[in-house]
Amino acid sequence: MKINYTCPNCKAKITRDHPDVIHAGFDDSGFLYCDKSGDLLFWSAFDPTYKKIVDGVLPWTLSDEQKKKVESALKECDCGGKFLFSAPPRCPNCNSPVPKITGDNIHMVRLKREIDGSKRNIWK
């Protein structure tokens, strides 16, 4: 998937392609964005801590209740924000939300800093 998007706030052109746009289902990953910084947090759908929290349910099929469990089990972002399923990615230029940049909820897009849950402890 290739993204050509214009930030609705600052009008910056945002263009991304693979490997910066990833289908989470094909990658077996879950992902969230920080509600303040827009940092991207992702983890393996097979992470043992994640699997224990939601009884092995795949990230893209979580119920609202399961999403809340995952969110509450995560450490906060370095900026003090929270990683939320409802938090959209943010413009790398002005930090405004860009909620429709991918057009769906299965593609994650790297626009800012990324945090890989396999390389860093993301769980409380």
List the topology elements.
Blueprint: E1 3-6, E2 13-16, E3 21-23, H1 24-27, E4 29-34, E5 40-44, H2 48-54, H3 64-73, E6 83-84, E7 107-109, E8 114-116
Parallel strand pairs: 5-8
Antiparallel strand pairs: 1-2, 3-7, 4-5, 4-6
Overall description:
This protein is of the alpha+beta class. The chain has one domain. The chain has 3 helices and 8 strands. A hairpin with a 5-residue loop joins strand 4 and strand 5 (40-44). The longest helix is centred in the middle third of the chain and has 10 residues, at 64-73. The chain starts with a strand and ends in an 8-residue tail after the last strand.
Shape, per Cα inertia axes? globular
Oligomer: single chain
Q: Approximately how much beta-strand content do the residues carry?
A: 15-25%
Report the end-to-end length measured between terminal Cα atoms.
33 Å
Write down the Rg: 14 Å
Total count of domains: 1
- What class do helices, strands and sheet pairing give? alpha+beta
Largest sheet: 4 strands, mixed
Poorly predicted tracts of residues: none
Helix % is 10-25%
Number of strands: 8
- Output the strand order for the largest sheet: 6-4-5-8
Mean pLDDT level: 96
Explain briefly what this protein structure is.
This protein is an alpha+beta fold and 124 residues long. It has one domain. The protein contains three helices and eight strands, in the order E-E-E-H-E-E-H-H-E-E-E.
List keywords for this structure.
four-stranded mixed sheet, 24% strand, 124 residues, 3 helices, alpha+beta, single chain, two-stranded antiparallel ribbon
